[in-house]
Specification:
It is built from ten helices and eight strands. It is an alpha/beta fold. The chain has an eight-stranded parallel beta sheet. Helix 5 (107-113) crosses helix 6. The protein binds pyridoxal-5'-phosphate. Pyridoxal-5'-phosphate is lined by residues 48, 50, 76, 99-100, 185, 221-223, 237-241.
């Protein structure tokens, strides 16, 4: 029987098996990269930190650092940004990304927090981020989020070359935003072909742009990271594969 403290301290439960999960995930990245003829060192592992505590994040950051993996942390809830100021994670030198659905009234917090914002999914968000980046006096790197699956629940611009070219051109004209890549959330299905098609579409949109500034492809989560790496992801966003299943609350 597990010691009583395991029940009293949820962090203990998750951190005890963390090394196994970290090694398993690095193995998955290495295997998929090999299969695709890619160097796994070119892939950034973004830790999706929603619902996780500073203790859990600090433990994962430390383990991944020990194993030499290049990482970022990615928050997708503006109301969870504050936890990244916890002394356990504040000065760890890990780049911070914002990956969630944005609201214009949170633009200031997100601009202050993130080195890279993945989720520019509509024009009024770009305008709000630009305004806040301008007030802060620092240009901000952003990704253009594309709805490659056509699922209505998902944000993002339509996956058409002329739409993305238009958004990219407008972002390039903005003095405070620098478009550096594209982001998508793969089709939410167990049909591997459908997932692959949505991720491949993001890559083909990048090829269509043929814009050397727009190099990043943020795609792939715990369930589809192999497909994403095969299809050219430069950033994979992983939560449950590293931290375990999310609490459902
Ligand atoms: C939560 C989240 C992830 C990670 O999801 P997992 O399935 O837990 O790996 C990736 N991207 C976004 C935008 C997320 O919100």
């Amino acid at each position: 029987m597990a010691p009583a403290t395991d029940h009293a301290d949820p962090d203990r439960n998750t951190t005890a098996v963390l090394p196994e999960r970290v090694d398993a995930v690095l193995d998955r990245i290495a295997t998929a990269s090999n299969r695709a003829g890619r160097d796994s060192a070119e892939i950034l592992l973004l830790l999706a930190t929603k619902t996780r505590t500073p203790q859990q994040i600090a433990a994962a950051v430390e383990l991944l650092g020990e194993r030499g993996q290049r990482i970022a942390v990615g928050e997708n809830r503006a109301q969870e940004i504050a936890k990244h100021n916890d002394p356990l994670v504040r000065d760890n030198g890990v780049p911070r990304h914002f990956i969630g659905r944005l609201q214009t009234n949170k633009a200031r917090d997100v601009v202050a927090f993130a080195d890279l914002i993945h989720s520019v999914d509509r024009d009024d968000i770009a305008a709000a981020l630009s305004r806040r980046a301008g007030l802060a006096g620092t240009p901000k790197d952003v990704l253009i989020q594309v709805n490659t699956s056509g699922e209505e629940s998902k944000g993002g611009y339509a996956p058409r070359p002329e739409v993305i070219a238009d958004v990219a051109a407008r972002l390039h004209e903005d003095p405070w935003l620098r478009p550096v890549g594209l982001m998508t959330i793969g089709a939410n299905t167990t049909d591997e072909q459908a997932v692959r098609a949505s991720l491949r579409l993001l890559r083909s949109l990048r090829e269509d742009l043929a814009d050397p500034a727009i190099a990043e492809l943020s795609m792939g989560m715990s369930a589809d990271l192999e497909i994403a790496i095969e299809e050219g992801a430069t950033i994979v966003r992983l939560g449950s594969a590293v931290f375990g299943a999310r609490p459902s609350a």
